[in-house]
Design goal:
This protein has 4 helices and 6 strands; from the N terminus they run E-H-E-H-E-H-E-E-E-H. Helix content is 29%, strand content 25%. It has 134 residues and is of the alpha/beta class. Strand 2, helix 2 and strand 3 form a beta-alpha-beta unit.
Amino acid sequence: MTVGIIGIGGLGTMGIKLAKALGHRVVAISTSANKEIMAREKGADGFVVSSDPDSIKAETGKIDLILNTVSAAHQLGLYLPLLRTDGTLVQLGLVLEEHKINQMWLLPGRKSIAGSMIGGIKETQDLLELCLKH
């Protein structure tokens, strides 16, 4: 599976490490090209500068799951082309403003947008065991 991580801050770098530990190909996604070296040091296999159309084009249709850790206002539609058919973008960073979505990026590719906050005790224990192992 290819996992994209939007936002290469604290939560994003943890996402890179965890997705890599689970054996996935990881693509870091940032508005800043300056984050590439750090993202690769944390384990990212690929890097997308979201403000660069050529950079986005290189990964278009190649990502199965995108974890969005950004908690500032931004448009999700920019990232939807990166998803494969049946791909999902999961909102982890809380943004209080509304997101505007063009359905044409969702319908033909059966793409989804979901949200998540935190798991229960079992999921937390599994995560701690994964961290201990890696």
